[in-house]
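Appendix B, record 7
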Amino acid sequence: MALKVGDIAPRFSLESHLDCRISLSDYLVSEAEIMRRLEAVSGTDMVLVLFNPASSKRRHVLEAALETLRRFRREDTVVGVVRRAFQEEETVRLTTLRELDPSLVDMETLLVIGNSQSRVTGEKMITPRSERRGDES
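Structure tokens (predicted):
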């Protein structure tokens, strides 16, 4: 089943004009180019979705990506960790950039990095649709 980021809307409220998706796989794109892209968007206040974040042999790209994010984002930025989305074994964890455990991340994981307005409400990660603070309409 092909996974589209919008499909995880029941748990993560994402708007297409407020998010950016980046693959951390260096299979077709160089690691340098991945890091350039990540650095270019990390300073914006967009929600970031990282896919193909780490394989068993390619952990260093994830580590470098997290270092970059931590330079630009607050440590308490909400992070959704979705593993095996839409499968029986699906797991969803909500954490922060500070508390994110990279050992829980593999190629079957999506990392949803919130923006400055993202928050946890109950068991959901919420990012307001409007750029105006507090307006979720």
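Remarks on this record: The mean pLDDT is 85. The chain has one domain: 8-126.
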